[in-house]
Specification:
Blueprint lengths: L4 H19 L18 H26 L7 H9 L1 H18 L2 E6 L2 E7 L24 H19 L9 H24 L4 H5 L8 H19 L12 H20 L7 H27 L6 H15 L8 H19 L2 H5 L6 H19 L12 H32 L6 H6 L1 H6 L4
Antiparallel strand pairs: 1-2
Length: 444
C-alpha cells in the first residue's frame, strides 16, 4: 500500500511534538499571577469539573447531530470530522493554543488605551505554570489547570461546528491542517480579544460574551460561509438525511452539554450559574416551538429535524447573554432568533451556495442575533441599550462587523493556504463513492 508523503510528514511532526514535550523545561517554577491554594472554593471546583465534562460531551453530540443529517455514504466521515477535534485541538491547546488565548497580552497602544490582540505564545507553552494554584485574574477560586481545560473544550468544538458546511466533499488530511490553522490564527486571537482582561474587544469595546456567542458561534459561522464559497458546491447537493434518530440524540446531548457551556462560564457555583442554566433551557425551548410553528404556518410540515435545528438555534442565541438577562427575556431571545434563522435557512441565495448543513444560517445568524440582543437587553447600569448604554450597543455593532470581517476573510485565506499545501476537495469519483469508503474504507 502506497502511503502519501503528507501522512508521513504529519506523523513525523507528531513524533517531534511528543519528544519536545518530554524534554520541555519551564522557564521558572512560579508565575507572578498565581495565588496560594487557600483561595480555592471546593464548590466552584466541583461545578467546573462537571461543566468541563458536559462541554466535552457536546462534541460527540455534534457528531451525531451532523451525522444524522448527511447522506448514507458520508455518515462516518462527517461524524469523525467533529470527533477528531478532541484529539487535534487538545494537543494544540496544550502546546501553544492556551498561551496564545490567555497569555500576557501582546498588542498596541493608541493614546492611553491598550489594545490586546494575542497572548504571549511562550508563557503557558506545554502548560508551563498551569498547575493547581488559582490565577488571580482569570480564575481566582479554581485551580488554573481546571480553567485551562474548561476553555480547551470550547476550542475543541468551534472548528467541529464548521464541518457541517462543507460536509461530503473534503479530503480528511486537508481538513486536519485547516483545523490547526483555524485554531491558531482565528480562534485564539478572538478568544484573547474577548475574554482576556486586556483583550481589545472585551476591555476596550466592552463586548459582553458570557459563554462564546462571538468567540465560538460567530467565528464558526463566518468561517463556514467562507469555506463554502471557496470549495464550491457538491456534485450532488440533493440528499435525504440518513438517520433522524441520530439528529435527535445529538440534539439531546448538545442541550445537556450546553448547561456546562453556559452555566459553567460563570466559573463558580453561584447565582449567575443558576441564572445561566435557566435562561439556556428556556431560550432553547422557545426557539424549538417557534421553529415548529413557523414552519407550519409557512406550509412546511412539522418535522423532528426542524424541532432539533430550532432548539440548537436557541442555544446559540442565548450563549452570549446567558448570565446577563432575565428568564422572560430569554424567551424572546429564542423566539426572535428562531424566526430570523429560519428565514435565513430557507433563503434561496443561501441555498444556492450549498452550505450542506446550514451552519451559517444557524450558528452564524444565531450568533449575530445573540450578540445584538445582548447589547440591547443585558442587565446592569449602562450595560446595554435598554439601560442607557448607547456606547455599549454601538461598540457591540462595531465589534460584530470587525469579528465578521476578520473571521470571514481570514478563513478564506486559510482555506486557500490549506488548498495550496494539500488539495481540499476530494476527486469527483471519491465524492460520488462517498467519503466513508473513499477516505476511511468504512461503511455503515
Amino acid at each position: 500500500m502506497k502511503i502519501e508523503k503528507r501522512w508521513i510528514v504529519s506523523f513525523t511532526l507528531l513524533c517531534v511534538l511528543s519528544v519536545a514535550a518530554l524534554f520541555w523545561t519551564p522557564a521558572s517554577d512560579v508565575h507572578p499571577s498565581m495565588t496560594d491554594g487557600s483561595a480555592i472554593n471546593s464548590a466552584d471546583v466541583a461545578w467546573l469539573l462537571t461543566s468541563s465534562c458536559l462541554v466535552l460531551l457536546m462534541t460527540p453530540g455534534l457528531s451525531f447531530f451532523y451525522g444524522g443529517m448527511v447522506g448514507k455514504n458520508n455518515v462516518i466521515s462527517t461524524m469523525l470530522q467533529s470527533f477528531i477535534c478532541l484529539g487535534v485541538v487538545s494537543l494544540i491547546w496544550v502546546t501553544v493554543g492556551f498561551s496564545l488565548a490567555f497569555g500576557t497580552s501582546i498588542g498596541f497602544t493608541i493614546g492611553e488605551t491598550y489594545y490586546g490582540i494575542i497572548g504571549n505564545p511562550f508563557e503557558f507553552a506545554f502548560f508551563d505554570h498551569v498547575g493547581t494554584q488559582p490565577h488571580n485574574k482569570l480564575a481566582s477560586t479554581v485551580p488554573f489547570i481546571l480553567f485551562a481545560l474548561f476553555q480547551m473544550k470550547f476550542a475543541v468544538i468551534t472548528p467541529a461546528i464548521i464541518t457541517g458546511s462543507f460536509a461530503e466533499r473534503v479530503r480528511f488530511i486537508a481538513y486536519l491542517l485547516f483545523v490547526c490553522l483555524f485554531t491558531l490564527f482565528i480562534y485564539t486571537p478572538l478568544c484573547h480579544m474577548v475574554w482576556h482582561p486586556d483583550g481589545m474587544l472585551g476591555n476596550v469595546f466592552g463586548v459582553k460574551d458570557f459563554a462564546g456567542g462571538t468567540v465560538v458561534h460567530m467565528s464558526a459561522g463566518f468561517a463556514a460561509l467562507a469555506g463554502v464559497l471557496v470549495l464550491g458546491k457538491r456534485k450532488n447537493s440533493a440528499h435525504i438525511p440518513t438517520n433522524i434518530p441520530f439528529v435527535l440524540l445529538g440534539t439531546g446531548m448538545l442541550w445537556f452539554g450546553w448547561f456546562g457551556f453556559n452555566a459553567g462560564s460563570a466559573l463558580a457555583a453561584n447565582s449567575t450559574a443558576a441564572l445561566a442554566f435557566a435562561t439556556t433551557t428556556i431560550a432553547s425551548a422557545a426557539a424549538m416551538m417557534t421553529w415548529v410553528f413557523f414552519d407550519r404556518i409557512n406550509g412546511r410540515k412539522v418535522s423532528a429535524l426542524g424541532a432539533c435545528i430550532g432548539a440548537v438555534v436557541g442555544l446559540v442565541a442565548i450563549t452570549p447573554a446567558a448570565g446577563f438577562i432575565t428568564i422572560p427575556q430569554s424567551i424572546f431571545f429564542g423566539f426572535s432568533a428562531a424566526i430570523v434563522s429560519n428565514l435565513a435557512l430557507n433563503w434561496q441565495k443561501l441555498k444556492e451556495i450549498d452550505d450542506t448543513l446550514d451552519v451559517f444560517a444557524c450558528h452564524g445568524v444565531g450568533g449575530i442575533m445573540g450578540m445584538i440582543l445582548t447589547a440591547i437587553f443585558a442587565q446592569g447600569e449602562n450595560a446595554s441599550l435598554m439601560h442607557g448604554g448607547w456606547n455599549v450597543f454601538l461598540h457591540h455593532i462595531a465589534a460584530l462587523g470587525l469579528v465578521a470581517f476578520f473571521t470571514f476573510f481570514s478563513a478564506i485565506a486559510l482555506f486557500k493556504i490549506t488548498n495550496f499545501i494539500i488539495p481540499i476537495r476530494v476527486s469527483e469519483e471519491s465524492e460520488i463513492l462517498g467519503l466513508d469508503l473513499s477516505q476511511h474504507d468504512e461503511s455503515l
